[in-house]
Design goal:
The chain is α/β, with parallel strands linked by helices. It contains 14 helices and eight strands. Strands 1, 2, 3, 4, 5, 6, 7 and 8 form an eight-stranded mixed β-sheet that branches. Helix 7 runs parallel beside helix 8 and helix 9 crosses helix 11. The chain is globular and about 60 Å long. It starts with 7 loop residues before the first strand and ends in a 10-residue tail after the last helix.
Length: about 350
Amino acid sequence: MVNMDKRVSVIVPVYNAETYLPQCIESILKQDYDNLELLLIDDGSSDKSMQICEEYGRRSGKIKVVAQKNSGVSAARNKGMENAAGEYILFVDADDYLPDSCVISRMAAAIGGADILVGDYMRLWNDRLLPAGSCSNFSGFSPEQGAFRFRGFFSVGTLSYVWCKMYRRSFLQENQLRFGDYAYAEDKLFNFYCYIRGAEYAFLPEPVYIYRKNDASASYRFRPDSVRGWMAIAEELERFVEEKAGDKGYQDLTACTIFFAAFFDGKMNYEYGGKTLSAVKRVLKEYASYPLAKKYFSELARGRLLKHISPFLWKAMVWGFAWGMWLHCYGLLSLGIKLLIDWRIDERLSDTGLRENE
């Protein structure tokens, strides 16, 4: 039997989520781990989300409802941490849910003395549950190794997400870790901070979370100003590494963040820009205008910071893309992105593999 002496705080930021919110809340309330509190942080919803939160709050003494003016998901999560009383914290998005009633029990039993427990997750994609890449793909490496960073934060990616994890609240408090005010990828930056501050990890290679593909969410929304947003994140990360990491050599985090941002934005601009190469070239040129991007594409093109990237296909892609950016071969890179999408190679490289059969 799991020791339930440790309280677990589950934080759910809520914004216009009336369609999926009941399923999310029910999946948390049905947990067999009794010593938990559920904090529903309504971020100024204009639909019936707040009414749903209040109704569930009247039904269960485990629920605390907090309302704030619309300030974004980062502010909502920070508000949740300020109000949390548990020794451990879980973050759950309002359009997602936990897969079974034993999730929190399994996580509490597995975390041991670690600061962060990392579990697996599944994606709900057009009514199909698809297993994503497992944390076992990088958990065998030492956290100090570049392979741990590249696989954990980028090619597999599980370390980037704030969900499917259990955090020790005292670790977050001692290191004064909070979410930055960004419209997207705020959880990736938060987890970078955790890693750089020396978090000890434990792993549970079992699905503990269902992530729903929601086309209205920030993850899938096309943003014309995304280059500026991603580069602000990269510049903030660069400052944090210089200030907190000393000589540990974590510059590969910034370099790979810029690479994946440029590639992802190129892909999004192709798909939402009429599938024209000119749309891709435009966004790649914009990335190349930033001094920090120039610096790291030059480093990657020269073979630096590539040592621990694996498998070889990823290393070749990063190196080739960096060469193209360094030499301003935007047309060739745009054609390469088009072919990766048209031939669905980008899906094969994703955490779930091919998502549709047609």
